[in-house]
Amino acid sequence: MTGPLSLKSDVDVAQGGGFLCEGHNADVNAVVLAKNGALASGSDDHSIKVWHPTDSHTWECVHTDGRQQQVVYSMAALSDGRIAIGTDKGHVRLHKPNPAGSGWGVDRAQSEYEPVNRSKVTSLAEMADGRLIVCQNDTIRIWDLNSGKNTDLYGHTKTVWRAIQCSDGRIVSCGSDGQIRFWG
Tell me: the pLDDT tens digits for 76-102? Predict the structure, then answer.
């Protein structure tokens, strides 16, 4: 779907506040606000959609990338303007905005990291130093985007759902094993 996206008031939908956005053909698993103000969404329909606001109630889909060939399961907006996407097959790809502002493309210089395994990437988060936290199964991988080197953190016994960096530099994670772990 391309063209204007009309945001319907939730009052029309569920007697609440806010807006409802529609456009993907399957479950939407991830959404991020990129540094350039665009909204990026990822879906079970194997696509990434990039939306730009046209006014306070309408967003336009300016780009659809349906070449993922995998479910887009997680996303992170990076401080340098790129977005990272994690798939259901364990891949992480970096996308950057096209110079004309019309869409996004794979960053060929740093397009993909070696997955821990072929299971879904449940969470992505950027650290203060630019490294990327990648959660997959019971593993947290810290990916240095500059060197390409990885550091793995083990300790969870089931799926790690989220990991973030705290203001003191430590990483905190949570998982299906009922644990919240602090690292570093």
Answer: 999 988 899 999 888 888 887 766 555
Alpha helix ranges (H) inside the chain: 10-14
Query: Taking all residues of the chain, what is their mean pLDDT, rounded to a whole number?
Result: 81
Q: What gap in Å lies between CA 17 and CA 179, rounded to an integer?
A: 34
- 3-state secondary structure at position 108: helix
Largest Cα span, the chain: 50
Tokens 């550091």 belong to residue: 151
SS3 56: coil
Block residue for tokens 């606001």: 53
DSSP string, 136-158: ETTEEEEE-TTT--EEEEE--SS
Angle made by CA atoms 54, 62, 112, in degrees to the nearest 5: 135
Question: Which residue in this structure is represented by tokens 């007697």?
Answer: 15
| Amino acid making up residue 17 | G
Cβ contacts of 6 within 8 Å, gap of 6 or more: 57, 58
Residue 110 gets which letter from DSSP?
G
Own/partner pairs, 27-31, CB within 8 angstroms, 24+ separation: 29/71, 29/72, 29/73, 29/74, 30/72, 30/73, 30/74, 30/75, 30/85, 30/86, 31/75
